[in-house]
Structure formats: C-alpha cells, structure tokens
Write a structure and sequence with these properties.
This protein is α+β, with helices and mostly antiparallel strands and 711 residues long. It contains 14 helices and 33 strands. It comes from Cyanistes caeruleus.
Length: 711
C-alpha cells in the first residue's frame, strides 16, 4: 500500500526499492539504502560475475529496481577482472543507487555498515502517523490479542497493561527496562562497532565521517585518522544542523518566491517546447515541399524524354517498314518502275531515286534514332544526403565552417579553403588541423596552424599521400565544433614546372598561345578549311603539335593541365628529344581512311604498324572523353576503354623506371600507365585538332587566393 506522507516523504524513500526505508544502512558515501536492498544488489552484483553479467540475475527480486546505469557499472567492474578467489584481501564494491558511484565497502562488506537508527525512528514515526487507525497488538496475549499500550526497547516487544505487569514484575531487573509507546521499531540502547562487535562506539572519525571504537583508532583502519569524542561530535554537528535549519526557515519567503518562479518556468517551458515543435515541423514541411517539387520535375523530365524518344524510334520503325517489298517507299518505287513513258518516268524517278539513296545509306550505317538508356537522368543525392545527415538545430554561437573542396587544391603546395554556411565571418581566427593517413599509425597526431583568413597554403606535405583536414572557428574563448573532415591526395611526384614552347615546331597559323604561354588554343578557322582540300587525296587534316620548353633527364615528375570541354581532339603525353623532329614532320595521319577500323584491312597489322610508327607516347582526349589506348592488356570492347574526361588531368613521368602514368588530377587516381623509352631528354607533348584548348595548371603560391580573388 502506498503511504501518503507529505513534506519529507522523498527523504524517507529508499533509492533502490522506491519505498519507505526498512532498516536503512549508511554507506561510506553517506547515502542510505535498505538493508534488504543492499543484500539484493550485492547478490545481483556477485551473480553477474558467475553468469558473465547476464541480466537474469536481476529478475529474481521484484522488489529491487536496479537502474541501467548500475547494471552498466556492474558489467564494467566485471570486465575489470576482479577475482573471487584472489589471495589479496577481498574488497567489496557496491554501486550506490543515489550518487551512481562504485563504493568500496571494505573487507567486511555489508557487515561493516552502520544501521541508521535515527532515520529508522523517523520513518517509523511517520508510519504510525499514517496508520493511526491501525493499532499495534500485544505480542503475549492469548487470542484474541489485546491492543498494546507500551513497547519494551530491551525486550523488543509490545505489551498490553496486564502482560507488561506479568513480564516486568516489581523488584526484578526487568522492571528497570526502558519502555515507550506502542511501536514496531526497536533499536539497541548502545551502538556497537560493526568491525569489533563487542566494542561500543565512543569516537567519531572526521575523515571517514562515521562512528568508531577505540580498537579502530588503535590498530584498525582509522589508526592515522583524525577523531573526536562522540559527545563533541554530537554537539558540533547538532549546532551546525540547527543553524542551517534556522537559516533555511528564515529564508522561507525567498524559497516560496523561487518556487513561484520555477512554476512559471515550467509553464513557459511547456509553451516554448510546443512552439519549437511547430517551427521544426514547418521547417521539415518546407523541405518536404521542395523535395516533392524536385521529384515531380524529375519525373516530368523523364516522361517527356521518354515520349520524345519513343516518337523518334516509332518514326524510324515506320521508315524501315517502308523499305520492305510491296510496302511504303519500296512498294511505291516498284509501281513507278512500271511506268513506260520515259518523260513521265524521269519526272517522278529523279526525286524518288534521291530518297532511295538516302534509305540505302541509312541501311548501311544503321543507328537508332534515340538512346534507350536514361543515364543522364540519374539523380545524384550523395551531397544532399550528407547535408541532411548533418542537419541540426541552429545555435546562436559560432557557425561551423565548411571546407570548400572545389576551391581547395593539391599541387606543388596544398591550398585549403573554407567558408561559413551563413557567409558571415563570425569568427576572429580559425584553427586548421591536418594529419597524414596511414594504416600503420594506431594513434592520430593532428598538426595545427592558426589562420586569420579563410584559406591556408601548406608546403610541408609528403608526395603520394592522403591527408585529412578539419577546421574550427574561434571568437575569444568560444570555439565552434570541428568541421566535417575532408580527405585530399597529394600528387604522386614533385611538380614539374614548364611553359609551352613558342619556337620549336610551333605553328602559329593553327595554334594560339596566351602571353604567359600557359594556355594554347586550336581554332577551327580558315586554315582548317584550306586543309580540308586534302580530302580529295584520302587524308583529312593533321594534328598540330606543341611541346614544353623544359626537358626531363631523370627522376620522377608530375604536371597537370585542363582540357576545355568543347575540345574536339587533343593528345597528351611525352616525347624524347631525339624524336621531336620526326614528331613535327610525321606524315601519318590517324584520321585517314586507311586507318579506320572498317577499312577492310587486317586490324592487327594496322595496329602494329601504327604503334611502331609513333614518335611519342600519347593518349587521346576529346568530346569530354578519355580514351585508353588499345593495347594487349586493355579491354577488347572499345566502349569499356572510354572514360569521362576529368576536369583536371595529370601526367606522372618516372624516368628511372621508364613508366608514364595519366591521372585524374582532382582525385590523384591513375587512369592509364604504360612503358616509355626514357633514353633521351623527355619533353611534355600536346597535340590539338579542330576547336580545342589546353591550360597548364598554375602553381599554388602564398598569394594564390589573393590573385584569383582580384580576378
């Protein structure tokens, strides 16, 4: 039965069983727990060692309620390896349900704890107040028992008047027993030491804050502790407690004012939480609305593209059906052939013959009128998913900076750039941290640098390595959380710097260099039209070559460049110095009909002749594609050798190993690698045809961001 005790009820409730205390014990942390609860918790505690921390040990007692945090502490202590049969003195740990700490009960365990008789008396007093209508019956009356009138503290029993006289006759020792009103709470007249059961406690340990006996002070665990007499401790503690109580009572009006204020805060918290829920719901509803609009637009675009493609394919089907005998165009032509009048036949057959020729040409080079795949309609939501994953409540503090991967670069140096989502410079200073990723290192050591702006150039990074970067803002002593870590890769070798050579073989009629010689452009203008006259002799146009102005003799080097997306045909690679003249006077032309796959010649012999005739090692780019050369190790399917053109390309030449690699410079990923003859001085080589442009990647300097911002 739940007892309703007003005012101090929460002080009389056991934190373990959540009921009124029954024989409470004082823990070393000064909190109180029922004697039975302590035993049950220790039982569950010991059982966890035997069962490996199973939860079943807590199910045996419905009275006790061990919190999840207590069970976690039991598991933690279990994993710490405490042995039950250790040769060292055994120390019992107890998870206090009040302070959530693991309390050391010492070698005696529960037997070393004092019983809190004062608290027990208060609890019993309130028990009696709560059950005033329920009488305590005499323990010695014959049935039916009479209502007791007094209880003997020495006998620990309750008596009616008649039974008390019988068991406590005048002139005997029992007549001197102490008696009180009817009670069920019997406490000993003398408090005995739990460690020395025959000794009475007569001192108070100020260090451990508990009563002790003289043996505890002489040779026990309190030998070196500061102690005082029990009477002195009683007087001191009672004075302190009385003063504190008087102070609290004198501040009753202030306490009531605080209670009133807290009541208002409770109501305000309820209202504000409901308002916050509504605002959060509205924010998510806006996101749902945007997603629904995007979804509808994407589905409409796919449906429109589908209808257009189906219409084109259906029209193509109808055109080809017209090529069948006695059907459509062929059937009409067969009827025209029946015309015997020459003038009438010629009048009709001329236009018909043109249509028949077009149909014949389309039959030879069959190509579907529309693509069946919808690869261009794939929705990339990876970035949005990351953003939604980081979605959190807006704080009035510092904004979390974000590293801008598009503006950050890894080349001769590392340029790390960041920005704040709100586009406001709320921080006074930023701290950039970075570390090299390595599988061998167990612990991560971040290198730190302070930055006043929103970018930093780093020059102490290793080649061919991956680094993680993060940044946070500071405003005085307040700092923002760390940004999301960004991983970037350094070039596979030191960066090689050069410019386009405007002298050796440079064709200024077809190619145009910028004043700094860092960009070259091939214009499909009037000179290309003049070159098209060679169509009459079976050759279209030739490639226009340009090389770097600096050669490489040894070592490993890397350089990067950008190819404009509109470029029709570009070749990039390396050329040895002894073959430069042959490069600029090469008469072979890859665009000649002789080298087309459908020329009718043996493809294998053609490839062999083509490879042996090339003076340099080049790969082909164009029309936003990267073409892997046809080698024995390459895939046989031509479609699998075509990759999307990266926004930035790189070339890594290793003269010592005789290897050249072509990289996606944005991710520092090798796309293709082959052997190369490095017996002579090696030069970067480029070839352009039609409308095309190549821009050398600029070196990162300390003034790089300022220069580009000015532009």
């Amino acid at each position: 039965m739940k007892v309703a005790i007003k005012g101090i009820e929460r002080e009389l409730i056991c934190p373990a069983c959540k009921e009124l205390f029954t024989h409470p014990l004082i823990l070393p942390c000064q909190h109180n727990v029922c004697h039975k609860c302590v035993k049950e918790i220790l039982f569950a505690f010991e059982d966890s060692f035997a069962d490996g921390g199973s939860e079943s040990s807590n199910q045996s007692s419905p009275r006790i309620r061990i919190s999840a945090s207590s069970m976690d502490r039991i598991d933690r202590i279990n994993r710490s390896g405490r042995k039950r049969n250790s040769l060292t003195p055994r120390s019992t740990l107890f998870p206090c349900p009040s302070c959530q700490r693991d309390i050391d009960l010492g070698e005696r365990g529960i037997n070393g704890l004092f019983r809190n008789f004062t608290l027990e008396t208060i609890v019993e007093r309130y028990r009696q107040a709560a059950r005033a209508a329920i009488a305590i019956m005499c323990d010695f009356c014959k049935p039916p028992p009479q209502e007791s009138t007094k209880s003997c503290m020495d006998c620990s029993a309750s008596y009616c008047n008649e039974c008390f006289k019988i068991h406590h006759p005048w002139g005997t020792v029992k007549a001197q027993h102490e008696y009180v009103g009817p009670t069920t709470n019997f406490r000993p007249k003398i408090l005995m030491c739990p460690e020395h059961e025959m000794e009475r406690v007569n001192m108070y340990c100020e260090i451990c804050r508990r009563p002790v006996c003289h043996l505890c002070k002489l040779g026990g665990g309190h030998a070196n502790h500061r102690v005082t007499t029990m009477s002195t401790a009683y007087k001191t503690l009672k004075e302190k407690l009385s003063k504190d109580i008087e102070y609290l009572i004198s501040k009753e009006s202030q306490v009531k004012a605080h209670i009133t204020q807290l009541d208002l805060l409770l109501k305000e918290t309820e209202c504000n939480s409901e308002r916050a829920k509504q605002e959060a719901s509205q924010s998510f509803e806006k996101l749902y609305h945007v997603l629904e609009e995007k979804k509808s637009a994407a589905l409409r675009a796919i449906e429109t593209s589908k209808n257009i493609r189906l219409e084109k394919l259906q029209t193509q089907v109808e055109e080809y059906q017209g090529l069948l005998e006695n059907n459509g165009l062929v059937g009409y032509a067969q009827e025209v052939l029946k015309e015997t009048d020459p003038s009438c036949f010629v009048q009709t057959a001329k236009q018909l013959h043109v249509r028949i020729q077009k149909a014949t040409e389309s039959l030879k080079s069959f190509r579907p009128a529309a693509e069946t795949t919808f690869e261009d309609f794939v929705v990339d939501t990876a970035k949005q998913e990351d953003i939604l994953g980081d979605l959190s409540f807006h704080s009035n503090g510092l904004e979390i900076p974000e590293i801008n991967e598009e503006q950050s670069r890894m080349y001769n140096k590392a340029l790390i750039s960041w920005e704040c989502p709100g586009k406001t410079d709320s921080a006074d200073i930023y701290v950039l941290e970075y570390h090299k990723l390595s599988k061998e290192e167990e612990s991560v050591t971040w290198q730190k640098t302070e930055v006043c702006g929103k970018s930093k150039v780093l020059s102490d990074l290793d080649d061919d390595s991956s680094y993680a970067f993060r940044v946070r803002g500071y405003k005085g002593s307040i700092c923002s959380p760390w940004s999301r870590e960004v991983i970037m890769h350094t070039p596979p070798a030191p960066v090689f710097s050069f410019l386009f050579d405007d002298k050796c073989g440079y064709n200024n009629e077809h190619l145009q260099l910028n004043p700094r010689r860092t960009s070259v452009e091939s214009r499909a203008g009037f000179p290309l039209l003049l070159g098209s006259e060679r169509l009459q002799v079976g050759c279209y146009t030739t490639l226009d070559y340009i090389i770097g102005d600096t050669g490489i003799a040894k070592g490993k080097h890397f350089w990067a460049f950008n190819v404009e997306a509109y470029s029709y045909l570009v070749k990039v690679g390396v050329v040895p110095s002894n073959k430069i003249q042959k490069l600029f006077h090469n008469t072979h032309d890859v665009t000649s009909p002789r080298y087309e796959q459908d020329s009718g010649h043996d493809s294998g012999s053609e490839d062999a002749f083509f490879d042996s005739s090339q003076p340099c090692t080049l790969v082909t780019l164009g029309m936003k594609k990267f073409f892997i050369p046809a080698t024995p190790a390459a895939p046989k399917d031509p479609a699998s050798r075509i990759l999307p053109l990266p926004s930035c390309l790189g070339i890594c030449l290793d003269c010592d190993r005789g290897r050249v690699g072509f990289y996606d410079a944005g991710r520092m990923k090798c796309l293709y690698e082959c052997e190369v003859d490095c017996s002579g001085l090696m030069y970067p080589a480029f070839a352009l045809m039609g409308g095309a442009a190549v821009h050398l990647e600029e070196a990162v300097t300390a003034k790089y961001r300022e220069y580009h911002n000015d532009i």
